[in-house]
Amino acid sequence: MFIKSLTLSGFRNYDSLDMEFGKGTNILYGDNAQGKTNILEALYLCGTTKSHKGSKDREMIELGREESHIRMFVERDGITRRIDMHLKKNKPKGVAIDGIPIRKSSELFGIVNMVFFSPEDLGIIKDGPGERRRFIDLELCQLDKIYLHNLVSYNKVLNQRNNLLKQIGFNSSLLDTIQIWDDQLEQYGKGIIRTRREFLQELGEIIQNIHKELSGGAEELTIRYEPNVPEEELGDKLKRNRERDLALKMTNSGPHRDDMGFFLASGDIRRFGSQGQQRTAALALKLAEIELVKKRIKDNPILLLDDVLSELDRKRQTLLLGGIHDIQTVITCTGLEEFVNNRVKYDRIYQVVEGTVTSKN
Questions:
Q1: Which residues share a beta bridge with 357?
Q2: Which CATH number do you get for residue 253?
Q3: Which among 87, 110, 140, 288 counts the fewest CB atoms within 10 Å?
């Protein structure tokens, strides 16, 4: 699969933009704060309906505009598809596939698969559990429509249960209704826990060899799923913690508090690893994600690299760039030295200056 073109209107700092992409490596270079990352964000948004930064729709609309439009053409298995997305300040976004509006975001998944890698991802190991859950969710929502349904449903029920916990303080009779929400949390939560466990087990098998290569064979990395509560105990845990939940006015048990661990022989690198060990593990995680997606979809995902090379040493640059030669890649950078040094073959080079994109080849 590969992206053929992107059109923007009123998105971030782009009043209008039309650009085409090659099937191989596409380089966007320029100084910081010129709009390079905005292009990657638009591509990811068009493929997943979500900003990689978690931005809200209204935050991505150009200043002074009421709405924004993104159009992306993507080819897969010889078939070209058109994805249109309208962002609106005060209304839900509109999405259409080949000119036909869709009602659920799940209808978009499967058309294109993307892996996004930014400098922030290098901190995923030492950051809080929320960032690691977000990593799991962003990938699984692209790969598994049932997981997406379970996650969306779980989050809706979780919000409703939390609101109920607050209301019970003013009306104790509402306590009789809490079991209704507990049953639904258990139903959707079990599906989430089960799928996350299988995903991380599969990812863990892939990451070991990649990390061994990155560390020169010196260290062996293991990742573990750390559920807040085991799948079979979720319903009972919600009941046992009900008094605590009422006191705190929030739900304290469930997959919304899951984590994943990263371990070397020396211990948990989230807490005790050096910065170098944490960065190596994060890079291995992203490279393993690419290989897992390849395995699952029987195709290459599209790779979006946002100024990552400047954060890696020469060895890790070489390993990363050497592992993506057969994948369409859109990569941002401030200069072209990394590509010259690593003798990277590229299809297209664009310079980005204050929201204007100019082809350099």
A1: 352
A2: 1.20.1050.90
A3: 110
Q: In the structure, what pLDDT confidence band is assigned to residue 350 with cuts at 50, 70 and 90?
A: very high
Q: How many CB atoms lie under 10 A from the CB of residue 345?
A: 9
Question: 134 and 109: one domain?
Answer: no
Tens-place pLDDT, residues 206-244: 999 999 888 888 889 999 999 999 999 999 999 999 999
Candidates 181, 145, 176; CA nearest to 161 is 181
- Using CA atoms, how far residue 8 sits from 56, 92, 171, 355, 357, in Å, is 17, 18, 50, 11, 12
The mean pLDDT value for 142-165 works out to 95
Are residues 235 and 316 part of one domain? Answer: no
Q: Is the pLDDT of residue 340 over 80?
A: no
Full domain range(s) for residue 4? 1-113+302-361
Q: Quick one: 287 exposed, middle or buried, by C-beta within 10 A (0-12, 13-18, 19+)?
A: buried
pTM: 0.87
Q: State how far the Cα of 9 lies from the Cα of 263, in Å rounded to an integer.
A: 45
Q: Specify whether the CB–CB gap between 252 and 243 falls below 8 A.
A: no
**Boundary (domain end) residue, out of 248, 270, 298:** 298
Q: Which of 52, 107, 54, 62 is nearest to 88 (CA)?
A: 62
Q: Identify whether residues 242 and 262 lie together within a single domain.
A: yes
pLDDT at 110: 81
Question: Token pair of 344, please?
Answer: 């990277």
Other Cβ atoms closer than 10 A to 163? 12
The tens digit of pLDDT for each residue in 102-137 reads 988 888 888 999 999 888 888 899 899 999 999 999
Domain of residue 12, CATH code: 3.40.50.300
> Same structural domain for residues 337 and 213?
no
Same domain, 20 and 94: yes
